[in-house]
C-alpha cells in the first residue's frame, strides 16, 4: 500500500503532472500565478512542491470562482485551483486512475479515457436496436454541488486509497472558494474545475450504476449527471424510476423535476444534444 504514496511522490510523476497541466493551459488561480510564470522555474517549483508534501508543509490554496456563460443563458460557476494545486491533484490522479478506472462500471461514459459522449449516444441507440422501448430520461440537480463529502470519502477509501491520500482529497474538496462576495466554505459538493473532481464524481455514482445495471430488464447509460434508463415496458420503467429515486436519496441527491421524464423512443427525447 505504501507504493501508492511512493508512486505519487516520484519526481517523474510530478513532471508528467506539470506537463499535463501546462498542456491544458487555463487561467491563474487565487494566488495569481500563471502557467508561464510557473514555467520559468518549473523544475525548482516541482522540487519545492514535493518537499512540502514530504515534510507535511503542503497546504491547498483557496479556489478562485470564475463565472462562465451557459449556452442556454445564465452562468456556470467554476472553481479554479492554483497552478501548484492543479499539479499536485494531477499527480494523484496519475496514481489513482490505474487503481480505480478499470473498476468503474462500463455504463459510465464521462471523464474517462477511451470513451466519449458519442459512445454514450451510440449505447442508447444500441439499446433501441435491442428492443428497449421505454426510457427514463433523467438529470440530477446540481450534481457536483450536492455530493455528500463523507459518503464520497468512504467510497474512495473502499478502493484501498491510503489514508494520507484520502486526507489530501479531503483538503481539496473542502477548501474555500474566493468569490466576488467573499470567501465561501460550502458544506457539500466537489469543486467544478478541480483536476480531481471528475474522478471523484464517477466514484460517487459507481454503486448506483451497478445497482441499476444489475436489475433484470434495465439498461443504464450515464454521462456525468445526465443518464437514461431503458426498459421493455411501462411497468418496468416506472419501477426503475422509484429505484433511481431511492438510490439517489441515499446519496443525498435528487432528480430535476423539469428535466426528468418517462418517455419512449417513439415519442422521442434528447440525450446529450442528440434525439433518441
Characterization of the model:
There is one protein chain. Strands 2-1-4-5 form a 4-stranded mixed β-sheet, with no helix packed on it. The model has no long low-confidence stretch (mean pLDDT 94). A hairpin with a 2-residue loop joins strand 9 and strand 10. 48% of the residues lie in helices and 16% in strands. It has 276 residues and is of the alpha+beta class.
Radius of gyration: 20 Å
Intertermini distance: 45 Å
Segments where pLDDT lies below 50 for 5+ residues?
A: none
How are the strands of the largest sheet arranged? 2-1-4-5
Q: Which band does the percent of strand residues land in?
A: 15-25%
Count of individual beta strands:
10
H-E order: HHHHEEHHEHHHEEHEEHEEE
Overall mean confidence score, pLDDT? 94
| Helicity, as a percent range | 40-55%
The helix count comes to: 11
Largest sheet: 4 strands, mixed
Globally, the shape reads elongated
Structural class: alpha+beta
Short description:
This protein has 276 residues and is an alpha+beta fold.
Task: Please name the defining characteristics of this protein.
single chain; 276 residues; alpha+beta; four-stranded mixed β-sheet; four-stranded antiparallel β-sheet; 11 helices; 10 strands; elongated
